[in-house]
Structures are given as structure tokens and as C-alpha cells.
Amino acid sequence: MEDCGHGRFQWTLFVVTGLALMADGVECFVVGFVLPSAEKDMCLSNANKGMLGLIVYVGMMVGAFVWGGLADAVGRRKCLIMALAINCVFAFLSSFAQGYGFFLFFRLFSGIGIGGSVPIVYSYFSEFLSMEKRGEHLCWLCMFWMVGGLYASFTAWGIIPHYGWGFSMGTEFQFHSWRVFVLVCALPAIAALVGLTFMPESPRFLLENAKHDEAWMILKKVHDTNWRAKGEPERVFTVSQIKTPKQQDEFIEIQSSTGTAFQRWLVRSLTLSKQVIKNIISLASPELRLSSLFMAIIWFTMAFSYYGLSVWFPDMIKYLQYEEYEAKVKLFHREKVEHFTFNFSLENQIHKEGEYINDKFTGIEMKSVKFEDSLFEDCYFEDIKSTETFFENCTIKSTVFYNTDLSEDKFIDCKLENTSFLQPKKGCHLDYQEENDILIYLVSFLGSLAVLPGNIISALYMDKIGRVKMIGGSMLISAGCTFFLFLSFSQAAIIAWQCLFCGVSAAAWNGIEVITVELYPSSKRTTAFGMLNALCKLAAILGSSIFASFVGITKVVPILLSFAALVGGGLLALKLPDTREKLLL
């Protein structure tokens, strides 16, 4: 690789693999951005929303495990192409899915596809880098995950609030603007897929699989591409022989090329499965056992804190918004209204012990309206759109509800006498102006942008400071930053502390990904990365679920949990071996 130099080929591969990493970053944001609209479009319950938020991480966890194992057996490039193709196909299908079940299923498989991106991309790109360039350029590659977050935030803000950017075919098929956003989010994966078709397989993987001549030809191509671009086309590739580390089992080789098509497929599948399982078991071998245990704990603690707080920050902002909204509620007590037509919208109101006789409610919207212990007699409701509107302990006599979305579950402990519901509205009411607050996109955009300083610092100093000190220092400083969250009394303060935390923790993430590549041999590299990344997604699921459950209850538990995890992981990281001078074997 030193003889090949660093030039045009590596920069081209940098962009292609970066787009694949960007697609992974986008995938983490898609569901969060579309949920406010999708929950109305598909009439999702809170349980359904929670499942939709978690299913992407479940898919990515499975994908990281599967594709990581396969990439060591089948090839980096081949597996990355298959993984991105699956992601693109199911992301496309999910944008057209009308029912919750199909949308959930397609997003699961979209996540399984993109789950292979991170484990394969870092291993694939690192195997084309010389030792002195490895740490710095892998850190630059990490910036594409940040770009994915920026891309998702910017396109969501530009597309989702525009309700007119869609079409419908009757009442059964609706294609609203949030579905356009889902399609646009697949573009980085499509671009990476196209770019990979022009890239070669990793020569290190080919050598591991006894394909000496192919590896030599690829290295020569890299050499010629780089030196031709530097104006030295006459420079000769001096490497004439490369040692092949292992030979394929001849018996397996003969079996996999003879017999019927099914027999050949069966032999290859069994051989592949055995190889993947053998690689997974080998991560617990005496020479790798301690490193694997340390890395598992570090990945888990970092992901648990990072993803847990990533959910906690926006949820806390929403909670503060809700408290502010609740503080402005208007209370009407014992009002008596007769022969009146309500043709204006009602919002954030509580009506207690009121009497409404022979009144009309026509063509209006009701948002966060509650009627308690009230009487409705000879009233007429027509063309009503409601959000968070309830009737509790009311008596409703001789009243007609025509073309409204006020279903019977909105009437809690009410007494209904001679009351009819005619031609109720189907589906759920979408209010794009209200449901798509620009603050949602701004928080994600700033959180992604805040990673930039951490990425730059880690890229410039990764080889000078070392991976171990970078990870340990970043995690310990991040742990200190969590105590500032006790001062988060306003939305602006929460956004500021989020940006600080994301910026500081970025260096730890970069160091973790670089050292994971360097700790393991080529025959087990993507398997180990896939296992650790799957553990990362499991920690993300646990962290986001646990932290979200304390929103509005207490700040102490999330802060102490994240602090303890980061301190533990940071101190353990300082015990890792320094891999700056390690050759990728």
C-alpha cells in the first residue's frame, strides 16, 4: 500500500464509502422526522409509534451482525452492494405502504440492509490505506455520518411541511409529502450503490481467500491510478510477489464446483455458515478475548449514553413546550350558551359544568379542548376536525354528529341519549402547520452540525495523541458535560448542552471505530465490527427506552446513568493497546 501511494483512487473510494456511511446516518433520522405526520396519516397509537421508532434499530442490529459476518466470508464490496440494494428496495416500498403493518415490515428490512454499512465501510476503506494515513482518513470518513444527519434535517424541513407535494388516488391511496421525504432519503444509498459498481474488492480480503493474482492486479491498478494522477505515469509497481496467508480447502473447493446446482448451493451455504460461526467463536479466543470484552463494554457504554441522551434532548424540549402550552390554557366555568353557532376554532380550552342548548358547531377545528361535567342538548356538530379533544362525564341529549372525527372513544364516562353519529370522517386529521414545528428540524440540524469540531480535532490529532487517549479523554469529558444538564431549564439551554455533548463525544466515536478496525485481523475484522455494532444498536434501544421514560419525571436518573456509563467506558478505554503502529494483517 505504501508503494501504491495515496491519491485519486483513495479519494474516489472515500466519497463512495462515505455515501454509504451517509445513508446509515440518514436512516437513523427518517422515522423520527416522519412520525408526527405518519401517526396522523396511519392513525397510529402510542404503542405503534414506539414500535416504529425501535424497529429501525432492531433491523440495523440484525443487519450489522449478519452482514459483518458475511463480509469476512464473501467479500467486502459484494456484501456492501447487497446490503445497500436491500436498503434501497425496501426504503422505496415503505414510501408507498399505506398500512402500518407493511410500513413497519419495509422499514425493518430497510434497517437490516443499511445495518451492514458501518461494519463493512470502515474495514473496506481501511484496507486501501497505508499505516500513516489510516487514523486521519478514517476520521475524515466519519464526517459523512454527520453529513447524513444534516441532509436528513434539511430535506425534512424543506419537504415534509409542504402538504401539496403529493397526490392521492381516491381515499385508499394517499401519497403525502412525508412519503416524498422517505424517497429522497434513499438517494445517498443509491449513489453509493452506483459508485461501488466501479470499485474493486479489497486486496486484503482476496489474499485471505488465496486469490493472489486478483489481489496483485487490483494493487497495480491502485498504483497506476494514483501515480498517473500525480503526473508520474512511468512509475513502475515494484511489488512482484505477495505472500498468500492461507489456501482454500481443496476438498471444499472440489465439492463446491461439482454435482447438481442444489448440491453446489448446499455445500457453499454450509461452508459459509461454518466459516461465519467459526469467526464469531474465534473472537473469544485467548489472544482476542480481552480486547473483545473491553471493546464490547466501551461500545455499549458509549452507545447507551449517546443514543439515550439523543432521545432525551428532543423529548425534554417537547415536554417544556407542552408545559408552556398547558400554562396558557383557558378555563370556562359554568358557562350557559343557547341558540349560538360556533363557527370559529377552539384551542387549548377546558369547559367545566357548562350548558349548551340548541347550539351549532360547524366547520371548525378543536385542538386540546376538554368538556367536563357539561350538558349538550339539541346540539348539532358538523364538519369537525379535532386533536386531543375529549368529553368527560358529560350528558349529551338529542344531538347529531355529522361528518366529524369525534368517535365514541372521545366520550369518557358520558351519558348519551338519542344521540347519532352520521357519516363519520375516515382516517386521521393531518395538520401540517402544527405537527411540523421547525424546532424539530433545527434541533437535529444543530446536533449534527455540532459534531463537526469533534470530527476535525480527532482527524488532526488521532495519530498524534493516539486512539486510546482520544477515546478515554473524549468519554471522560463527555461525562463531565452531562452535569450541565442540571442547568437545562429552558429550550435554548437544552439545545446548547446537546450541541456541546455531541461535539465532545464525536472524538470518542471516531477513535472507537478506528481502533476496532486495527485490533482485529483481516479474516475477522468485519465479523468483530458487526458484532460490536450490533451491540451498539442494542444499547441504543435500551438507552432511548430508559431515558425517554424519565422525561417529565426527573433529570437525575438519565444524567447519573449517562455519567456512570461514560466514566466506566472511558477509564476502560485507557487500558486498550495502542494500535497506531500496527499493520493490518
Automatic annotation (TrEMBL):
Signal peptide coordinates: none
Gene3D superfamilies: E3 ubiquitin-protein ligase SopA, MFS general substrate transporter like domains
InterPro entries reported for this sequence: LD_SV2, MFS, MFS_dom, MFS_sugar_transport-like, MFS_trans_sf, Sugar_transporter_CS, SV2
Single GO cellular component term: synaptic vesicle membrane
Membrane topology: Multi-pass membrane protein
Family affiliation: Belongs to the major facilitator superfamily.
Record's keyword terms, sorted: Cytoplasmic vesicle, Glycoprotein, Membrane, Neurotransmitter transport, Phosphoprotein, Synapse, Transmembrane, Transmembrane helix, Transport
Protein name: Major facilitator superfamily (MFS) profile domain-containing protein
Gene Ontology MF term list: transmembrane transporter activity
Main location: membrane
Location(s) in or outside the cell: Cytoplasmic vesicle, Secretory vesicle, Synaptic vesicle membrane
Annotated Major facilitator superfamily (MFS) profile domain residues: 13-580
Transmembrane segments: 12-35, 47-67, 79-97, 103-125, 137-160, 180-199, 293-313, 438-461, 468-489, 495-517, 529-550, 556-574
GO biological process, one term: neurotransmitter transport
